[in-house]
Amino acid sequence: MNRIILTFLCVAVAGIFSAKAQSVTGKWKTWDDETGEAKSIVEIYEQNGKIYGKVVEILNPAKKNAKCQDCKGADKDKPILGLVIIKGLTKDGNEYTDGDILDPNKGKLYSCTIKLDGKDKLDVRGYVGFSFIGRSQTWTRVN
């Protein structure tokens, strides 16, 4: 009987850690579409049941003090470092939708969906209007 209880507890604990590993929250390395170089680290977090992401590190030393010059509204001229670029995503099945993503280099705001591809890859899609008209990136988890 003790063996059955111990086995059940081990399976339950493994399930908890596995579920945590399958979360979109955490730090993710972004990549430059044009150069293929690592660009920044974005920390994705949950707040009030929605998903947000902010730039926590800029990897190019020459751009560490860059500002969101072309952004509109409250983000205009804010430092990119610390800027919230993913806003208000909600879980929909195995992806997160109905939020926005900001491209701080161009100052453009796009509709956004994100979805895990395994435990260490995140598919990020920004689009205008329809999801098939947009751009996708794959970000990698930073441990």
From TrEMBL:
Residues 1-21 form the signal peptide. Keywords: Signal. It comes from the Bacteria. Gene3D superfamilies: 2.40.128.520. Pfam families: DUF2147. It comes from Flavobacterium rhizosphaerae. Residues 26-141 form the DUF2147 domain. This is DUF2147 domain-containing protein.
